[in-house]
Structures are given as structure tokens and as C-alpha cells.
Amino acid sequence: MKSNTLIFEEIFNTKPEFEYVAPARINIIGEHIDYNFGLVLPCAISRYMHAYVSLRNDNIVKVASKSFEETYECEIGKFKYDKSLSFANFPFGSIWVLSQLTDKINRGLNIYYDSNIPLSSGISSSAAILDVTIYALNDIFKLGLSLDEITLNAQKVENNYMGLKSGIMDEAAIALGKKDKAILLDCNHFKYDYIDLKLANYRFVVMATNKKRNLTDSKYNERVDECTKALSIIKTKFDVKNLTELEPQNLDEIKSLLNNDVLYRRVKHVITEQFRVKEMVNALSAGNIKKIASLLDDSDLSLKDDYEVTGENLDTITSLARKNGAVGARMTGAGFGGCAIALIDEKIFEKFKENVEKEYTEKFGYSPDIFLVDVVDGVKNGR
Ligand code: GLA
Fold first, then answer.
1. How far does CA 68 lie from the centroid of its chain?
2. Distance between CA atoms of 185 and 34, rounded to whole angstroms?
3. Which of 82, 84, 315, 382 has the fewest CB atoms within 10 Å around its CB?
4. pLDDT at position 214
């Protein structure tokens, strides 16, 4: 197999000078909570996006990726979001955002990406390409950005360049990840603590449904808008800035105030999920596997019935996981297809994978990808 250095030379006629790597992420719990400015609990995992970079003597940015056939290029200063540019929007958007902060990005670049993160599947290949690119630009052009600033700028690319109303969780998890720790991230004040993952002989498995996701962005934005609408009604009675400040005991009052079943169920998910995050921190600190597992299952049910972001593929794969020995399972990320996670005793992994794959493939006619993950450090220099 050709090395990435060789492929780089073939595409760009020069050798890569720099190499960087960013992990993927899972969210353990706290789903659809980041844009409601609450607490989430993600971690970085052992799937990676590599970026190989060389400087050019002109002001062209040329990008290529192992996962896509096309090579794209654009002059610095002329970046504009264009759906047909596929993955190139991420590096172009990154330079666009940073160019508003500094004039130090004054030379063109060649960038080649190679990743084993399943694409648009809920474990954040998008945030990985953003973080690795901004980290690379920060290093090469000596911009002096901290990891927190890298995170915030990566989110700006998604919000202001790509038009997705996403929260800060993915970019933060990938920038700030630490080996064997979950990140308890306060998305309101952008503060974080690290929580030890005391899982004994249990490990997280990622299950990619491989369902082609349609409308993920528009459905996602729809949920954000529903929360905004509900909040504006709730604020007429409650003195809160965000839904995540409310408590489960407020739910009855909120139900009659909203007088709208859909909005009520969205809010119910947000409030109960926020409560589960806090319970999960306690369960992890105590190493209480039974409680950790039941919180995963409760979160999944709430995302299915109240937030309505799972769908047949995710519901099938989480049920199969439970049936085949997972102690708990839930979708992770935005939903609408994508990935789920399961907590299993690592001894059963081979059999678990075989059975879940078999039954899932029988039902849908295509197979899922199932793999064990380690919890790892965030974005860094790759050499
Ligand atoms: C996507 C978004 C995140 C977060 C999750 C849902 O992954 O990028 O910001 O909102 O969905 O928790």
C-alpha cells in the first residue's frame, strides 16, 4: 500500500513538511444539550483524522482527501461556502475564519487528509477536520491560539461559514480530549473538568449504522429552533436564560404553559437529559456500572420518544446491542442515522460484533461497522 507521503508527492509534486492528527469523539451523555448551553460529557476516541501539509509559494490553498476523489483549490481571500466543494469547505472555512483574526496566513498551502473516522456518521469527522486544520494553521503560521480558542474558531466555521447551528461539544471534545477521561463541559461558560472513566472490564463500542443520512442539517436546525421557541414561552413564567436551568419538578407547570405536545416533549428531553448528565458524573466517579448502563438506556429512550432523533436503524442497533450482551446502549451525536455506542464487557466483543452485524444486515441488507474504542488525547502534532 502506498504511504501517505508518497500520495502527497503524487498530488502536489512536493513532500509534506508537517503532519497533524485529530481523534473522533463520542458523547457519553448529554445529547442535544450543548446548544441549550448545559453540561455534556463527551470524550475523544481512537479513530483519527490525519492532515499532511506543505507551504506553497503562491496564495492558493489546494486540498485533497483519501476519502474523496476530487482535489479542490481556491485563492486565499476568495473563500465562499459552496455545497459542491464537499470536504474542501472545512479547510477553506477554517482559513476564512482565521483570516478575520489575523493577516499572518499569507502563503498558500497544500493539505492532504486521511481518516478512518466514518464520514458524517455522528462521531464527528467534521469537527476532526476543522480542529486538525485550525491546529495546523495555528502551528505553521504561529498564531498563538490556545486549545480553547481553536475550539471556538472551529465552531465559528460550522456556524458562520457552513450555516449549521451546532453547539460547541464536538470541537471541544476533539481539541481537549484526554486519555481515559471524559470531559464534563459546561457549554454555557465554556469551562470543563476531566472525569476519570472507571469502567473496570467494560469498554465502549461504536456501532455505525451506515444508513445514508438525509436532511441531518435541516432536522438538526429544526430541533434548535424548537428549543428556542419553547424557551421564549417558558421565559414568560420562569426566570431562566436556558432550558437546561430548569428542573424535572418544573415539568408539569411547563406542560400546561406550553400547551403543545411536541414542544413539551423536546423540553422534557432537555431537562431530563441534563439531570442524567449529573447522575452520570456520580455514577462514573463511583464506578457504578449498573447505574452508568441504565442512564445510557434512559437517555436513548428519551431521544427516541421525546426528542425524536433516532429512527429505525439506530433503534434496531441499540436493541440488538442490548440483546447481545451490552449492559447499556444509546445513539450518540446528532442522530437521524449515524452511530450508537454500547457498553460491553470486553471479553464478549467478538461474539457481540458477529451477532449484531448478522442480525442488522439481515434486516437492512447492508452491514454496520462495529469497533471497540479507547479514550485518547485530543488534537496534536502527528510526528
Ligand atoms: C451534533 C452537533 C453537536 C451536538 C450533537 C448533539 O454532533 O455537532 O454540537 O449538538 O449533534 O448532541
1. 21
2. 9
3. 84
4. 66
Reported as a single tens digit per residue, the pLDDT across 30-78 is 999 999 999 999 999 999 999 999 999 999 999 999 988 789 999 999 9
Return the amino acid letter for 312: E
Contact 135, 145 (CB under 8 A): no
Q: What's the predicted TM-score (pTM) here?
A: 0.96
Q: Ligand 1: does its nearest atom lie under 6 Å from the Cβ of 35? A: yes
Between CA 279 and CA 289, with CA 307 as vertex, the angle to 5 degrees is 30
Other residues' Cβ atoms within 10 Å of the Cβ of residue 241:
10
Query: Would you call 170 a catalytic residue per the annotation?
Result: yes
Residue 327 CB–ligand 1 contact under 6 Å: no
Nearest CA to ligand 1 atom 1: 334
- Tell me how far the alpha carbon of residue 44 lies from the centroid of ligand 1, in angstroms: 14
Q: Say how many Å lie between the CA of residue 333 and the centre of ligand 1.
A: 5
Region label for 337, one of left (φ > 0), alpha (ψ between -120 and 50) or beta (otherwise): left
Average pLDDT, the chain: 96
